[in-house]
Every structure is written in structure tokens, then in C-alpha cells.
Write a structure and sequence with these properties.
heterodimer, A: 164 residues, alpha+beta, Ubiquitin-like (UB roll), DNA polymerase, domain 1, 5 strands, elongated, B: 350 residues, Aldehyde Oxidoreductase, domain 4, four-stranded mixed beta sheet, 21% strand
Chain lengths: 164, 350
Amino acid sequence: MRNERDMTTNSAFRTPHSALEVSFTLNGTPTTVSVPDSERLLDTLRYRLGLTGAKEGCAEGECGACTVWLDGLPANSCLVPIYQVRGRRVNTVEALDPAAVAPLLDAGATQCGACTPGVVMTALWILQHPDVLATHTVRELMAGNLCRCTGYDGIVDGIEAARP
Amino acid sequence: MINDGSDRVAVLERALDVSGWREKRRAHAAFNAARAPVRRGLGLATFYHGGGFTGGGEVYLKSRLQVAGLPDGRIEVRSANIEMGQGTLTVFTQIAADRLGLAPDAVVIAEADTARVPNSGPTVASRTTMVVGRLVERACDDLRRRLGLSESARGDAVRAALRDWHRAHPDQSLVGEAVYEQPPGINWDDATYRGDAYGAFAWAAYVAEVEVDLRTCAVRVTDFVAVQEIGKVINETLARGQVQGGVVQGIGWALMEECKWQDGAMVNNQLTNYIIPTSDDVPPIRVAFLETPYPHGAQGAKGLGELPIDGPAPAILNAIAEATGADPRTIPLTPERLMTIAEFGMRNAE
């Protein structure tokens, strides 16, 4: 998947920075992009590859709306320079099985939806690694994903309902 | 004079019951008697919030709403009210489907494009379900009248009548409409600014339990019970979500969220220094509803959206007062603020 189109008016994309060639595995598919060396993973996903599920909430690693999995671990893609992704595995919300989020929907885990793509990436990571619940509560593990609408009960209840 | 038939004493008693008020008060007194650095307290707030615009607001708005009958037997609700996560699409679908006895997937909610939908007023003021939802019901009734059906016609009868009408009137549109009318018995005088400020009020009693660390003046909310009477609860999951979200915003407002201004601008306009609660900062919000149907709201509903933000701060400050002996009067009651009044167990805040 090579995409040379300039998909934004953001000056960061028009400035002829030195271009980097970065290859990584995106949702299981080998991917190579040619990008300015200062680009963030979030920008590459959203503006070059058209994967707009990850959201830019705060752009400083506080809110978690941009959460993706990097080598299988949740990470704030707004804080990851694209060159650090070289040779690594990136999974985004677009690759999730929609059926996996059904318990979250039933519990009222989403309202406005701005936090939801990041919330489900962390929530499903917890559900795929239930051993972490032996040492951490769901509320501790979800604390990196801010939500202003639900008060978190719907999110926590949805994860608890989906636990194996 | 408020006489809406709601049982406010029942709201209060339910809150005391669900929160275990009496037992917890005794337990906290025993716990605090040890004079440990951590103190516990329980606080109560009773409050109410009007649904819809104040005074003559709804009369001036003259909100209009349409329900169109489609040739395939479905209906389309045309309203200007916006889905922003609070559940308008779901609740309007429920209201329209119930009114005409249709399945939910036979109800289409039109995109709120003002080129296509009438002005049903803004999506504010705890009015969408109560006031605009009532217009959905009345527009459904009007559609049924235009089809020549009796008031009791539902389901198959409505679907068949829609198809028949469109066969008889090809390429024409069939639209039921409703315009807001002041409910009987609700009176407001704009000249004297007296009368019924709102058609109906939601009533609530919230109980907060806190732990205060006297060394750091950090406050943790350890339990929260939110009991409210909101008329008919149309969708329990959505209504509970409104309450839980509002309460957690209220906890943030009470304890941590502070806009700092400099030269007319907010200087802490980032999530790094404008702190909002995370999932780990708040307890489960325990929600209970009492229902006294309001005859002029959709299915008996009253307004809910704004209510839950009103109660948490007073409940939490009352709990801190009980835990520390201080008399806090300012929010957000950050540790820095609490320290100035709690240090000597002072009674006078600021």
C-alpha cells in the first residue's frame, strides 16, 4: 500500500522535509509509506492511509482517542514518530471484529463517540489479555482513555460483561 | 407553586435507602473518631431542574415537526433536533414506533438538514424528549388523521393505509405535522414575569461519600448515589448514561476542573493542565429512577439532560464538610483550596 497523495492542506505535509521510507505491518498487511521525517503515526494513518478511526483529541498523549496497538500493545499514536514504527506491527480500530464491541454497545459505552475508537482498542486489548485483571482493575486499565459523556460506567460494565 | 404530582419525599427516601445513609453515618462517626489522617463523610443534595425553555420560551419558539408517510409503509420523522450522543435518534424512533404500532426499523429519522426539516427548535434546555418528543407523537396522530384512520389504528392498519394512499396519490407526499401548544394549566405572564416557569420539573436527591486525606487534602469520591424522578423513563440505558455522565462531569467540577484566565483567555486549555476525571478517579455511579408521568411530555417523559450536573458539587462539598469540619463554599475545591480551610478544622471558608 503506497500512497503518495497529499491528502491535507496542513503545511506539515506540503513542506518538503526530507522524506523517509518507512515499512511496517498495518492490520496484517505489509505497508510502505514515504513521509516527512517529523510525521506522527496518527497523521500517517489518517491523512496518508485514509484510516480515520483513530482520532486526534488532545495531541499530547492525555486523552487516548488516538489509541492503536503497536506490536500488540495500546499506544497513543499522536506521540509516536513514524520512524519508530519501522518494522513494527500496527493495528487500528478499522481491523476490529465489529461483533467484539457488541457488549460495549449494549452497556451504553458510547454516547458522542469521539473517544470510542480509542476506548474499544484499549477495552479489547484488556479482554484479549484477561490475566492483567489479576493485578489491575478495569478502571485502572481504562484510565488512559478519557470520556466526557458516559461517566465510564457503560464502558466498565461493557468490559465486565464481555469478560471470558 | 409547584404541583406536578411528583412525590419528592419518595425521591429523598430512596436516596437515603440506596446509599445506606443511616448506617454509613454511624460507621463514619466511628471511623473519624480514631482521628486518623483520612476522614470519611457523606453529603446530600436535593434539587430540581425545569424541562424545556423558561417562561414563554416554548410559546415564542412555536416548534414545528413533521412525520411523513412513505410509500413503502415506513414513516420519516423530520425534526431539527440533533443526535449528539444523548440518544435522540433512538428515543424519537421509540416514540414514533410506539405511537403508530410500527417496528423500529419502519421509522426513519431524517438528517437534521434545515433545507428538509421544519424548525423544531434547538437541541438544548432538556427539551428534546419532553417537548419535541411530544410533537413526534402529535405529528404521528396528525398523519393517522390524514390517512382517515381512527385514533386506535396501529401497525398493519397504518402500513396498509400508507401504501393505499400512495397508490391513490402517485408522486405526492403525505405529511403529518404538529406545532407546539402551551399545555393546558401551564400559565406564564411575560409582563409581570410570573407564573409557571416550566411545564414540569425533574426532581433529584444525590448522595456522595468521600474520603479526605488531611495530609494532602486530596478528596476521593468513594460512592455516589443518584436518585431522580423524571416522569416516564423511555430508554433506561440512555437515561442512565445521561445521569452517569453528568454526575462524573459534576465530580470534576466539584474537585478538579478549573478554568484559569489571563488577559481574557484560558491559559490551561490543555488536558495536561485542565484535569478531568478518568475512569479511575470516580466510583460506579449508582442510578435509580422514580416515574411520575407528566401528561404533556412524550409518553409521560420530563426533561433530564441538564439535571445531573446540578447535584454532585453540593453533595460532595457537604460530604467534605462532614468529613473535615470545614465549611467549603467554593468549587472546584482543589486540594490547594481545601488546605486553606481544613488545616485548623476551621468553620469559616474564605
